[in-house]
Amino acid sequence: MRAFLDHGLSVVEGEPKTARWFGIQFGPSSFGIFDAFPDEDGRRAHLSGEVAKALGENTGVLFQEPTIEQLDVVAEKQPA
Questions:
Q1: CATH pick for 2-58 out of 3.30.70.100, 1.10.10.10, 3.40.50.670, 3.20.20.450
Q2: Please, are residues 33 and 5 in contact by the beta-carbon 8 Å criterion?
Q3: For the whole model, what pTM was predicted?
């Protein structure tokens, strides 16, 4: 999974509307992705892009069916 997430990072670095992207580890075998976009167009572009395709191709191989939840950030501390 770490290799998958490392590759995902290299992909999203080429997505101008993916403002923030994190590959995260919750526990020994539990991983996730958190990403943020400036607008809905950026979110749609990402969710139909290469990382989304790779998730589909690896479902049942590296992991079970991923859960994708969309949320809106209502408050944020900007990075320094």
A1: 3.30.70.100
A2: yes
A3: 0.85
Each residue's pLDDT tens digit, 5-46: 999 999 999 999 999 999 999 999 999 999 999 999 999 999
User: What letter represents residue 15's amino acid?
Assistant: E
Each residue of 23-44: b (16+ CB within 10 Å) or e? beeeeeeebebebebeeeebbe
Q: What is the Cβ-side half-sphere exposure of residue 29, based on CA atoms within 13 angstroms?
A: 3
Domain locations in the chain as residue ranges: 2-58
Q: For every residue of the chain, which 3-state class applies, written as one string?
A: CHHHHHHHHHHHCCCCCCCEEEEEEEECCEEEEEEECCCHHHHHHHHCCHHHHHHHHHECCCECCCCCCCCCCCCCCCCC
